[in-house]
Amino acid sequence: MPFAQSGELRTHYELTGDQGPVLVFSNSLGTDFSMWDPQMVELAQHFRILRYDTRGHGQSSVTTGDYTIEQLGRDVLGLLDILQLDRVHFCGLSLGGVIGIWLGVNAPDRLIRLVLCNTAARIGKTEMWNARIATARKDGMKAIAAAVIERWFTPEFRASCPDQVAKAQRMLETTPPAGYAACCAAVRDVDLRDAVAQIKSPTLIIYGAKDPVIPTADAQFLANHIQGAAIVELNAAHLSNVEQADAFTQAVSYFSK
Questions:
Q1: Domain boundaries, the chain
Q2: Count of CB atoms situated within 10 Å of the CB of 33
Q3: Contact 209, 236 (CB under 8 A)
Q4: What is the per-residue pLDDT across 32-86, written as a single tens digit (0 to 9) for each?
Q5: Largest separation between any pair of C-alpha atoms in the chain
Q6: Is 56 left (phi over 0), alpha (psi -120 to 50) or beta?
Q7: DSSP string across 61-117
Q8: What's the average model confidence in pLDDT over 219-244?
Q9: Count of H helices and E strands in the chain?
Q10: Residue 143 and residue 37: Cα distance in Å, rounded?
Q11: Cα 177–181–182 angle (5° rounding)?
Q12: What is the CATH code of the structural domain delimited by 3-256?
């Protein structure tokens, strides 16, 4: 699979399909772009699909220092420029969704439609992020994996779909600790609650009714403050695109056509 070089950053990406609008997928904290595998078969019939590993994740560069959401958003714009893609649909989950909010506020001319999944304008508290950063840096990813997996999937899904849960856990445990911690800092430091009303792109909010990371009120906040936004609830925890793959894919497909 190809890489795109921009300054110090080498981004691992995959662009599939020959026709149709481009749909960009931006992954969650602690995953690589294979988290979107459940969506590929159906959506590849309608879109060219661009998946990429966020800075510090997968096979993309782990650059030094804490990252910022602006930096991660500009990484997306840089990749679009390298690939000569003007306007795209953008779908981001969790961290990817925060990047999507930033793009909606700061680069509306590059977006056709925006899908924000299991995300919020402000996620968690500083103390929680600092503790997770410290653990990842000191003890590595396996030290936090079990607790994260419990937030990613409901107990029912963990019991009924162990292979999918194991795949997600492998992604998490093989994420570079330094890159994970640097992206945790980006989420820790950003608060876009006062900015989301600036988003004018047609927007869909997808959230999990059983998501312990993103309360329903946070998803509703986005829907209430983004003019004309649609909202879809799924019976899932945090990685709703995996736990409710068919319903998630259908929602994105219907909205983005």
A1: 3-256
A2: 25
A3: yes
A4: 999 999 999 999 999 999 999 999 999 999 999 999 999 999 999 999 999 999 9
A5: 46
A6: left
A7: ---SS---HHHHHHHHHHHHHHTT--SEEEEEETHHHHHHHHHHHH-GGGEEEEEEE
A8: 98
A9: 11, 8
A10: 26
A11: 115
A12: 3.40.50.1820
pTM over 0.85: yes
CA distance readout (Å), 229 to 26, 91, 124, 232, 249:
20, 14, 23, 10, 18
Length in residues, the chain:
257
CB of 230 closer than 8 Å to CB of 255: yes
pLDDT tens figures, 5-43: 999 999 999 999 888 899 999 999 999 999 999 999 999
Q: Burial-class residue 107 by CB neighbours within 10 Å (0-12, 13-18, 19+).
A: middle
pLDDT in tens, 175-208: 999 999 999 999 999 999 999 999 999 999 999 9
Identity of the amino acid at 61: S
Burial of 52 (0-12, 13-18, 19+ CB in 10 A): buried
CA distance 256 to 46: 9
CA–CA dist 244, 158 (Å, integer): 13
Q: How many CB atoms lie within 10 A of CB 64?
A: 9
